[in-house]
Hints:
Layout: E1 4-8, H1 14-33, H2 39-52, H3 71-74, H4 80-84, E2 113-122, E3 125-135, E4 146-163, E5 168-189, E6 192-206, E7 211-226, E8 232-246, E9 260-267, E10 275-284, E11 290-299, E12 304-313, H5 314-324, E13 340-350, E14 353-362, E15 371-379
Antiparallel strand pairs: 1-4, 2-3, 2-15, 3-4, 4-5, 5-6, 6-7, 7-8, 8-9, 9-10, 10-11, 11-12, 12-13, 13-14, 14-15
Amino acid sequence: MAFSIFKVQGSLSQKDRAIFEKTRALSHQDCKKSMPLVSISLHRIFLWALFGALSVSALTVHPRAGSTAFSDLLSTSFDARSYALGDASVALPGDLQTIPSNPAALGFMTKPSVAFGYVPILADLKGTFGSFGVPLALLKKETKGVSALTIHYLSFGTLDGVDENNLPTGETWGQSSLRGSATYGIIVSQGFAIGASVNALYGRISNESSVTSAKALTIDGGAQYRTSDTRFIAGLSLLNAGFLLSDYYAAGLKPSLPLTATIGLSVVPGFSPNLRFAADLVKSSDAYLQIRTGLEISIADQLIALRIGLNFDTQDIAEGLNNLSGSPNESYAKSNYSLVTPGLGVKTSINNHPLRLDAALQTRVAGFDPGFLLSASIGL
């Protein structure tokens, strides 16, 4: 059975190209084992393998890594502040940017706001988001809660088709994923809020003559408690609960969605109001238990925030202990692509409208060139 895989157009460094070619070879072998999938699903398998296995070691990631639908879109961090804190964001004093990790944080928003961001990932892989939220009492008195609309978009750029012998097929493909979300958050008692998002997901793979798509509906839910001074915040969330309406796979071979549960806290210690420590425990159906930690240091009268995060999982710990015991696993590579995540933020105002600008450095353990993730929010 003939089938095609892709190669990415665009400039890659020599080191990145070597890693990319190794990933493609592994994906090519996996595709052969996946028969009898329809041809287009093999493209999808390859793209998942490239995006979800930037560490290129297919032997050491979670057994279900890349097997869940929309894992590319749902695993991408679009908020620079959260990313710089190791993605420990379920208990941050958040705003629109934290909706994907905990929609309950929206309930504490007191002013209309807009947020947007840009995420360069690798070569032509890039993402962007935009969000608008408003306290409902501003639209109609006595109405409680805050609502928001958000769009997240991920593009894989242009891809050239090649056959199993790495020969061009003459086809040019494009692939993208989109998530539209409607979110509602409300404070139900002093310092305690709950929230939920209804998400419509759409994925598309196309060339000059054909289009295939995937669709899904999901619900995210969360809760957050914070003290009146926000020095202590605790949060939890359950994300991606839903079902596929259609997918790229042949009948009977549909993957599941990556159901994800998170619990976490953030604390401002009593000895310093300029520090905030955040930590999350995250378990997804397609990944090992993740430990996400971050530290934020505010300086210059809290106008500037310096951030550093550490993101790892239980498999990373096990392999680290193997190294200490003198029996390292030579094939091991970190299963998620970032370990240390530095960043910074700036708070200011324009005509009495609060403005926050955030940036994070995307460091990747597999040797890919780093990039910057950017996001911003503006109070209206």
